[in-house]
């Protein structure tokens, strides 16, 4: 027997003891006939070919098979492509009556497949689709929440966690069952979202339990101390100055109280001193400090600087 020829993968010749696989007009060593993706032998010899390359079933599905929008499994064989999705023929059903649509046709309504009979009902306004689950809604089973029409049962009461019905109520963006809503006589805490029965803190456009009104950065309660607001958040003085306050060029700490802002820098008013002699300067009137290389000098110290150095620095600044 002539064992001439070469393996289609490794290009080595075949030996008399080598196992051989013949597929698609090519010959492989048994050990070379593997999936091009995972390099494992084909289970039970089953493989799928794509553009001349052979894959095991799992890798072929992962790489090339569409996923059914109905059951979530890979689609092998006939594929129904509709409403921008892929389906098994048996999974492509009317979203209202669940009849199979693959062979009877369908109507696209708001991005959802319907049989012609059900589409007539929706077209007449008798039914609507839920904006959350995309399924049809019966009369008396839906609510309008955040400008969308949805099934009420998708939500729970913000207080007792009971599943809601269409009789629920909305307050400050939260939903409540009718019983909890009727029992609410106090404000809702902006932190824990629970009713406030005792002392109330009003700040940054919301109400708070005193112990829940804390600095947005260090999370320490204010406990009556002054707070600073920025973009709807509250901060203690220390964190506000650290995050957003001016830093003193003199002490390198956040400026407190009045701030001197000159020469593209900021100073605590008590730290605005002459660069040379530390004499306290004034930002008013302009004549009480002199700009030298973007640093403040009193006139006495400025006059001591060599004329040539002053000219050179002025020329560089210009």
TrEMBL record:
Cellular-component GO terms for this entry? cell-cell junction; cytoplasm; focal adhesion
Q: Which organism is it from?
A: Amphimedon queenslandica
Q: Which GO terms describe its molecular function?
A: metal ion binding
The family database entries (Pfam families) matched by this protein are listed as:
LIM (PF00412)
Keyword annotations: Cell junction, Cytoplasm, LIM domain, Metal-binding, Repeat, Zinc
Kindly give the InterPro entries that the UniProt entry links to this protein: LIMS1/2-like_LIM1, PINCH-1-4-like, Znf_LIM
Q: Where is the LIM zinc-binding domain?
A: 5-66, 68-125, 187-246, 247-308
Q: Where in the cell is it found?
A: Cell junction; Cytoplasm
- Primary localisation category: other
SUPFAM superfamilies listed in its UniProt record: Glucocorticoid receptor-like (DNA-binding domain) (SSF57716)
This one is known as LIM zinc-binding domain-containing protein
Q: Please, which domain of life does this record's source organism belong to?
A: Eukaryota
Gene Ontology BP terms: cell-cell adhesion; cell-cell junction organization; positive regulation of integrin-mediated signaling pathway; positive regulation of substrate adhesion-dependent cell spreading
């Amino acid at each position: 027997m002539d064992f001439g020829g070469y393996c289609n993968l490794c290009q080595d010749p075949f030996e008399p003891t080598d196992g051989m696989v013949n597929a698609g007009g090519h010959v492989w060593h048994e050990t070379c006939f593997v999936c091009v993706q995972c390099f494992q032998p084909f289970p039970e010899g089953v493989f799928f070919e794509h553009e001349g390359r052979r894959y095991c079933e799992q890798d072929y599905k992962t790489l090339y098979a569409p996923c059914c929008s109905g059951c979530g499994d890979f689609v092998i064989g006939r594929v129904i492509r509709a409403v921008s999705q892929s389906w098994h023929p048996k999974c492509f059903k009317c979203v209202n009556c669940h009849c199979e649509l693959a062979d009877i046709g369908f109507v696209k309504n708001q991005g959802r497949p319907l049989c012609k009979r059900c589409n007539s009902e929706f077209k007449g306004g008798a039914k609507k689709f839920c904006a959350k689950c995309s399924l049809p809604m019966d009369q008396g089973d839906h609510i309008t929440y955040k400008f969308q029409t949805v099934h009420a049962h998708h939500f729970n009461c913000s207080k007792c966690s009971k599943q809601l019905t269409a009789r629920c109520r909305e307050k400050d963006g939260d939903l409540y069952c009718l019983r909890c809503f009727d029992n609410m006589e106090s404000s809702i805490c902006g932190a824990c979202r629970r009713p406030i029965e005792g002392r109330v803190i009003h700040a940054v456009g919301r109400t708070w339990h005193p112990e829940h009104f804390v600095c947005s950065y260090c999370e320490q309660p204010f406990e009556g101390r002054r707070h600073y607001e920025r973009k709807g958040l509250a901060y203690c003085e220390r964190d506000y100055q650290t995050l957003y306050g001016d830093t003193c060029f003199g002490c390198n700490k956040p400026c407190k109280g009045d701030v001197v802002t000159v020469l593209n820098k900021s100073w605590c008013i008590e730290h605005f001193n002459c660069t040379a002699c530390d004499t306290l300067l004034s930002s008013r009137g302009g004549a009480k400090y002199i700009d030298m290389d973007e640093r403040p000098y009193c006139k006495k110290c400025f006059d001591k600087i060599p004329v040539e150095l002053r000219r050179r620095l002025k020329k560089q600044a210009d």
